[in-house]
proton-translocating NAD(P)(+) transhydrogenase (Tenggerimyces flavus), 98 residues
Amino acid sequence: MAEGIVLLTIFVLSAFTGYEVIAKVSTILHTPLMSGANAIHGVILVGAILVAGRADSAIELIVGLVAVFLATLNMVGGFVVTDRMLEMFKPRKQVERP
């Protein structure tokens, strides 16, 4: 019970700290910051695959597969956002008029 309260306290403090850190970042840096964070979530995908691979019961396997699915969506979404962001910085082609 006491360990659960300690873990809950750490979770709440880390969520508060994360909110405060992100709130201090200027608006123009939110997209690159989120894209980088989503790319780093590849580590979560590896962890989810490991958990799903070592599942002993059906519920563990289902939770592991859901985690793999969500981590994959998050990682792919990060790369899509990064690609769209980089497209914004490419020069546009001039349309030649006759």
Notes: The chain has a mean pLDDT of 84. The radius of gyration is 20 Å. The helical segments are 2-24, 30-40, 42-53, 58-87.
